[in-house]
TrEMBL record:
Domain of life: Eukaryota
One Pfam match: Cupin_1
Matching SMART domains: Cupin_1 (SM00835)
InterPro entries cross-referenced by the UniProt entry: Cupin_1, Germin, RmlC-like_jellyroll, RmlC_Cupin_sf
Organism: Rhodocollybia butyracea
One CC-aspect GO term: extracellular region
Protein name: RmlC-like cupin domain-containing protein
Entry keywords, A to Z: Manganese, Metal-binding, Secreted
Protein family (similarity comment): Belongs to the germin family.
Segments traversing the membrane: none
Domain Cupin type-1 per the UniProt entry, residue ranges: 32-181
Location of the protein in the cell: Secreted
Amino acid sequence: MTAPSSNDRFKKLLTDNGTLLTGEALRQLTVFDFNNQNPKNAPGGSILLATVDNFPILQGLDIAGTISFVEPCGLNIPHMHPRADEFFFTVEGILDTGFVKENGFNTEIETQLGKYQGTVFPMGSMHYQQNPTCKPAVFVAALNSADPGRSDIATSFWMLPNDVINSALGFPNTIGGGNIEAWRSHLPINLAAGVDSCLKRC
């Protein structure tokens, strides 16, 4: 990060005492393997994002990328990237997507993507993807930051103090201080199993 130029960063990363690394040592630093996904992370599928954290060669390049395998009815839960716009492509199956921008543009932009079709999610917009079919789907996404970040909306919201959650939801008789912990314990990670109507149909 402190190297003065792009060339200096590449030399520091890819050489050993001035000699270019070779073989597996070089491959480990220049190839990101999206096959290393853990499908046990969530019942709805798996997702792996290459960022500067796990792929250091991205430092200074302002790019990141992800591949996700979405199970039938799987849902990539509503989230946002605070530091990146996203260009999103379906490469297998069908995915429903939607995003909501900030206050003042109070309409959800929804679309359905088939194979080799894409859309965008602007920086900071809340967005999601869902597989509405009984067959697996796969998507690829490119982001214009090496450190795009990800905030899962529901998870982040439920980290707030109980009285703030109650007031924000306006339903203190339904969600109260006594059952907020129970709500928190059922929140999915990233890819959820999906919506009931799809699961019942499949």
